[in-house]
Amino acid sequence: MSYLRTFAPWIVYAVVPAAYWQWAALGALLLSLFEVTRQLRAGRTLDALIIDLGSLIFFAALTVLAFADPATALHPYSPALSSGVLALIAGVSLALRKPFTLGIAKQTAPQELWDHPVFVRTAYVLTAVWAASFTIGCVVLIALAHAGSTPRTIAQVLAFAVPAVFTIRYVAYIQSKAPAAARP
Questions:
Q1: Which residue among 11, 34, 84, 105 has its CA within the 20 to 30 Å range from the CA of 1?
Q2: Average pLDDT for residues 149-177, to the nearest whole number?
Q3: What one-character-per-residue DSSP string does 89-130 give?
Q4: Which of 42, 161, 45, 179 lies closest to 119, judged by CA?
Q5: Residue 92 contacts by C-beta under 8 Å, 6 or more apart in sequence?
Q6: Cβ neighbourhood burial of 58 (10 Å; 0-12, 13-18, 19+)
Q7: pTM score > 0.70 for this model?
Q8: For residues 163 and 100, is the Cβ–Cβ distance under 8 A?
C-alpha cells in the first residue's frame, strides 16, 4: 500500500486527460505536498521519502510551467519527462547506495531485517527494475509524444504496473525462500 501512496501523484498525472494537464500537474503537486507532510508528521525518515520529495519538486516545477505557458512545446513530452524524472530519481538512489525501495520497505519490515543482506539486495533488485521500467517508459513516451492520449496513458500505466507486479511477485518469492525466522 505504501508504494501506491508513493506513486499516487504520478498515477493521477498519468490518467488525467492531456487537455487538462495544468490541473493534473496541480493535483499531483497538492497530492505530493499532502503525502510528504503526512509522512514527515508520522516521523518518516528522508530515505523513505526519496520518490515523494522528487515528486514534490517535479510537480512544483511542472505546475509552474503548465500555468505560465500552457501551450509550451514541452507539453507533448511531459509524460516522457515524468518517466524520465522517475528513472533519474531511481538511478541516483542506486548510485548513492540508497535504493528508494529500501526506505519504503523499512516502513513495514521489522528493524532486525533492515541490515540483512537478502533484504538489502532485494531493495537493489526492485529499485533497478523500477528504474529500468521508467527508462523504457520514457523512451516509449518520447516516441508517442504526438500520438493520441490513449497510447500514452497505456504506456504510462504500464511503466508503473509492470514493476509493481514484479515487486509483489519478487518479494513473495524471496519470502518463500527465506527461513521462517527471517521473514518480515
A1: 84
A2: 91
A3: HHHHHHHTT--HHHHHHHTTS-GGGTT-HHHHHHHHHHHHHH
A4: 179
A5: none
A6: buried
A7: yes
A8: no
